[in-house]
Design brief:
- The complex is a heterodimer of chains A (154) and B (145).
- Chain A is 36% helix and 36% strand.
- In chain A, the strands form 2 sheets. In chain A, strands 1, 2, 4, 5, 6, 7, 9 and 10 form an 8-stranded antiparallel β-sheet that branches. In chain A, strands 3-8 form a two-stranded antiparallel sheet.
- In chain A, strand 9 and strand 10 form a beta hairpin.
- Chain A is globular.
- Chain B has 145 residues and is α/β, with parallel strands linked by helices.
- Chain B has a single domain, classed as 3-Layer(aba) Sandwich (Rossmann fold), CATH 3.40.50.2300.
- In chain B, 39% of the residues lie in helices and 17% in strands.
- Chain B is built from 5 helices and 5 strands, in the order βαβαβαβαβα.
- Chain B has a 5-stranded parallel β-sheet, with helices on both faces.
- In chain B, helix 2 packs parallel to helix 3.
- The longest helix of chain B is centred in the first third of the chain and has 13 residues.
- The N and C termini of chain B lie far apart (45 Å).
- In chain B, 39% of the residues are buried.
- The model of chain B has no long low-confidence stretch (mean pLDDT 90).
- Chains A and B meet through helix 1 and helix 3 of A and helix 1 of B.
Amino acid sequence: MRVEYINPFVESAFNVMREVLQCDVKRGELYLKSTSMPVMGVAAIVGLAGDVEGRVLFDMDKPTALKIASTMNGEDLASLDDLAKATITELANMITAQAVTKLHELGFRFDLTPPAIFTGENMEVSNQDVEALIVPMETPQGKVEINVAVRERA
Amino acid sequence: MKTKEDFPSINERVPEGQRADGTPFRILVVDDSMFVAKQITQILTSEGYDVVGQAADGLLGLERYKELYPNVDLVTMDITMPNMDGLTALSKIIEFDKNARVIMISALGKQDLVKQALLAGAKNYIVKPLDRKKVLERISHVLAK
């Protein structure tokens, strides 16, 4: 997987989270994974199709999702209700939209699917034929992992 | 004794969301994201605007506009929505009321759609993530025209 696809996601995740959470976000070490990956508990997924194809997963545990949604709404949300889910979805939307703008400027053409949210325990994600690059982000609300698995269309 | 009247108060400023006579501007918020709709509503009500309606897609937004008309001053319209997208809803609202004031709410990276919307009669646009200052600035600017 070429790093040009990844950087826009890393940069925009960093920028958008810093902006909406109004705080410091630390970028962890990137790593590649070609086997299945555990999913922490709340995962927003956005699909990409076009010159590049694949998906981006925004993964965090439930307390982190709740804290992020609470911060973004400016009020304490007690449970992962519709509003909290809509908030995490919107976060995924904003990050991918900004990344895609950068990729379009680099000349890649593709479309996005609307984000979907998965919640549950002991979930795993696996990709065949495409490696996933994981970018951990440390926020005061907890860890968010951005898991990007994209490739050029053959 | 000094009373309140001796001090000019910044609180006497008319909130942006109100006309000089104190009546609020009436806004319809069309957005499929509960989070974004809530965020816009909070920003606007804090400045004295009256959010008279919310709709979760373009079709509902169009219906709501027709119901409210002429008691609505401005619409904020998301672009990507199920059932009817914001561009179609915009055209239909303008078909119904050629003086409608509609502001598009767009994710970054939809410049082409924003351009189409402006050509179709949208008065301005706001890019997400929403910034309170920008939202208020763009809306009061459109209403002042």
